[in-house]
Amino acid sequence: MEILASTEAKRLNLYHLASLFFHGETERFSVKAEENENGVTVFLSDGEKTVQASASFDVSLHKEASRAQNAAFGQAFAEAAKFFTEYVPPYGLLFGVRPVKVPVFYRKNGFSPEETKHILQSEFLVSDSKASLLISLCETELSFEKTLSNTDGMLYLSIPFCPSRCNYCSFISSAAPNHLAMIPDYLEMLKSEIRKTAQVMSRAKKKLCAVYMGGGTPGILSAKQMEDLLFTVKNSFDTSSLREFCVEIGRPDTVTEEKLAVLKKIGVERISINPQTVKNETLDRIGRRHSAEDFYRAMSLAKEYDFASVNCDLIAGLEGETPEDFLASLKKVLELCPQEITLHALCQKRSASGSELPEEGKRWQEAMELAHKSCIKHGLAPYYLYRQKNAAADLENTGFSQNGTLGVYNLSMMEDLCDIFACGAGAIGKLLPKTKGARIQRFPGFKYPFEYLAHPERCDRRLEEMLQYL
What we know:
Elements: E1 2-4, H1 8-21, E2 30-35, E3 39-45, E4 50-56, H2 59-62, H3 65-81, H4 101-108, H5 113-122, H6 128-145, E5 152-159, H7 177-180, H8 183-203, E6 207-215, H9 223-236, E7 244-250, H10 257-266, E8 270-273, H11 280-285, H12 292-304, E9 309-316, H13 323-334, E10 340-345, H14 361-377, E11 381-386, E12 397-401, H15 408-414, E13 419-423, E14 428-431, E15 441-444, H16 449-454, H17 456-469
Parallel strand pairs: 1-2, 5-6, 5-13, 6-7, 7-8, 8-9, 9-10
Antiparallel strand pairs: 2-3, 3-4, 10-12, 11-12, 14-15
């Protein structure tokens, strides 16, 4: 797609808008933007017809010139696109991973929730239902943020191994037998990094307020391996300020009584058991290697240990599934009364195999609306949201929780509310900016377990860099 604009950032914005409005089929279009001091004019062409549309900059409304310009670029593009398509994405002109940051900006600049919702709809063309969702999430975030201090820090532990690889997955995880053989050495290295991270956080006067172990599939570890690893955390850190200790077990077939007993003994109060669907034909098709019965058994076991919160993940748009299949799975999961549910939209990534995304976008959007209403009806409220490129039907990933069970790490990590210290392969530390307007500082390590094991000095160097920044 040929795009002409005054800066690379504006050219990229126009590309993202074209991808949203034309579902990635942008090859036959070209777009040009011309600016003056008052606004922008966009010329959109399919090679046969050129349509132009204009919009003005309103800095007084948006508080920042860059936001006013982005809104005007989007409005002009959307107006021109009307000639070629009737489709307006549910999130309108908003693209990027964290759309909640948009209403948060306006609320922090003095706009009421009602005024902010009006801006989302009129300036960014967000649908009424999505604007309401974003406002609800925004208010939750603003309230939660007041409970954090600048001395808080969170710990993420990466277990990048799985029993098998799902055909839609492109996370940094290993399932090959020779990779699984690395686990004992990997855990020794990870424990060493945990101890060093505790020293860095102590020297930086950071209090540990949340621990989250994710993957991959952390449930692939044996009960003894889990115990050794998590006791390393308890013995290395001052946990007197700990608000949350969460282990994303993952695959239901990795759940055992012995592992749950270990987690309870150590003080883990939040776990995640993720079916993705309860339709066995789909589970076989996507290479999940567990059954719906495994999931029901795992949930029954978890109830016996009375965890404060059990989360279940479901995915909309899995290969071969209909919206009705997705809603049927959700109904069965809700009947088990988990304290949290996370609804994901299938995202086909570059390294994933599998079928194409569903083309019945409107049906999937309607299904997700019904799914949200079902969660709310069962006493679960949305508390965090993120979006990904190539998500089915331009949908989102949303976490729902019962009152009082909000995921401290999930919300803090997604909305950049707290310093994150991350250990293990594929883990990325994030430190908040020291000055207003500055960027989050990211501290990545090696992506893959074999690299992580081969270069322990990189872990030491990364921790030193984080300490120097702090």
